[in-house]
Amino acid sequence: MSTAKDGTTAGELLLALVDRVSHRGGDTLSLMNEAGTTLPQILFLARLRQAGGGTASDLADKLNMSLPAVSQMVDRLFRLGLLSRAEDAEDRRRKQLATTAKADALLDRLTRARGAEYSRGVARLSPALRKELAAVLQKAVRELS
After folding, report:
1. Per the confidence metrics, is the pTM higher than 0.85?
2. For the chain, first and last CA: distance in Å?
3. 17-140 is classed in which CATH architecture?
């Protein structure tokens, strides 16, 4: 675990940074509200898209959620047109889940809005520090990919 000179961990510092730059304009929350979704539902859709689809049990395991909670979320997202369900080719009792074009468009809009909020949040930093921060973040993202 990486720790700063004052004993603060990298995770704590990242949380402090995000707290200072996130949700400044409320655009992300407004988009979620318009879509009738909650943060857990958006996270679920993002993980589903990232995984390229999956079953309810797969997602319950990945998100550390109960299967009944996932099933309830799947039903809600299906009714909103954000998720598709199809029979699993190998086991007809299982359903393969995937995000719909509507969900993908929503996730893309949320990503752009969140990115813009973060950009506005770090705008108070000096240009040199913003450039340094961007370089460090690029390295971290590459290493975590």
Report:
1. no
2. 19
3. Orthogonal Bundle (1.10)
